[in-house]
C-alpha cells in the first residue's frame, strides 16, 4: 500500500522509517534531524514499481545531524534523496546487504572532529546494483575514505554505479586512508565488482596518494575529471580493470598531482588525457610480489594480498600527456618489472622528457609512442560544477 509520511523531527522520522512499506514516501520538512541513534531501514523488499523513498521536501534543507547513520539493511529499492548530512564520527549512509538502492542529490558535509570515519559505506552479502549519483562529498579533513566498498569478507558489491558526483577539498595529506573512493579491500581483491565510476568531478582531492583506490576486479573508471588533485587513480589490487576517457588537469605547481598507478593483471588504460601534472602521468609500476600470469595463486596469505602485485599484460593505448613533469614510467618498484605489456600510440608533448622511461629493462612492447606538437592536441571536455552534484541537470 502506498503511503505518504510527512515528518518534522527525528522521532517522527525514525517511526516513519520503521513503519513504511515499499512504495511509500517519507517527506522531511525543512529543519535539523539530530539524534544519536541510527535510522534503520531493514527488510524492505521493494521493486522497481514499489520504491521506498526518504526525501527532503526541499532539496538540501533537511539536515541529518548528530551521531546517526541511515542504515539500509537487507533491503531493495530504497531511495535517499536531497538530504544534507552533517553527521559526526559515523557514516552518513550504510548500504548493508542491499540492492537497487539509489542515493541521489544529497550533500555530505561532515563535522570535522579529528577522528576516522567514512561518509558512505557499501557492504554485506548480496549487495549490488546500487546507484550513487549527483551527490556532493566534502570538504573532509578527518581520516577515512569518503566512499568505501567493503563487501562481505569474500565478495565486493557488484554492478554498482557511482556517477555525476562532486568530490572536493579533501585533505590535508595523510600517508594512507583518505581516499575519495576505495573500491574494495586487499582481502576481497580477487573478487570481481563490475562497478562503474563515471562522469564524476574530483577537485582538490589531496587527502592521500590514491584518489580512487581500486582493490577489486573488472571495474570501469571512465569520463571522470580530476582537477588540481594531489594523487593518482590506482589499480592497487585486483585484475582486469578498465580506465578510459578520464581527464587529469593540474596547475603545474601543486606537488604530487598524477594520473594512474597500476599493479596486477590485464588492465586497460586508454584514451585518457593528462595535462600539467607534477607526478607520473602514467606509472605502470614494478611489484614486490609475483602473482603469476594467471593472477590467482592458490591460497595467497593476507600479507601477500596486501603487497604490490607484478603487472602482467597491461594495455596502455592512445593516451595524451601534455606538459607533465613525467610521462609514461615503467617499473619503479623492485624486484618485478612489468611483463607482457603493450604501450602503444600514446602522445607526449612539452615535458622535455623521454616518452617512456624504464627504471629497469622490461618485456613491454612499445609501438609508435611519439612526441607531438602541443598545437596538434585537442583538449577533451572537462567537467565543471554545473555538470555534477545535487544541483546539476
TrEMBL record:
Matches recorded under SUPFAM superfamilies: Pectin lyase-like
Organism superkingdom: Bacteria
Protein name: Chondroitinase B-like protein
Pfam families named among the record's database cross-references: Chondroitinas_B
Organism: Paenibacillus methanolicus
InterPro entries: PbH1, Pectin_lyas_fold, Pectin_lyase_fold/virulence, PL-6
SMART domains according to UniProt: PbH1 (SM00710)
